[in-house]
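Example record

The entry below shows one chain as it appears in the dataset: sequence first, then structure tokens.
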Amino acid sequence: MSSSTTDHWAEACSAARDESGYTGPDVPFTPDGVGRALTKERRTEFYNALARVSGGEHFDGLMFLWWPRALIASARPGEEDAAMDYADLALAHYVKAKPQPKKTYTHAEAMEELGLAR
């Protein structure tokens, strides 16, 4: 993560902890952090999925899918629901705060994207 992205992530996690009341362990938003927090079976599944992504948005999507699972897996007994709330809020805050690149399309690109290209 870039320093700007790391800042957005830290702010999102802080806000989510405040709102959810979750006090359990944190899982770093990294492949190693996620992998360490998962059970052996899920860890294998995660690393196999990780090997298939090329990066960029695919990598982000994979992490958005697996980080909450890892967080819930590492939660103390009885705190799984709080961990799930925390994960949902952290991701929501992060996506909301993360600058989104503005994508503009030419007419030809838009038509191709819609499957209407001639």
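Notes for this example: DSSP finds six helices and no strands in the chain. The chain has a mean pLDDT of 87.
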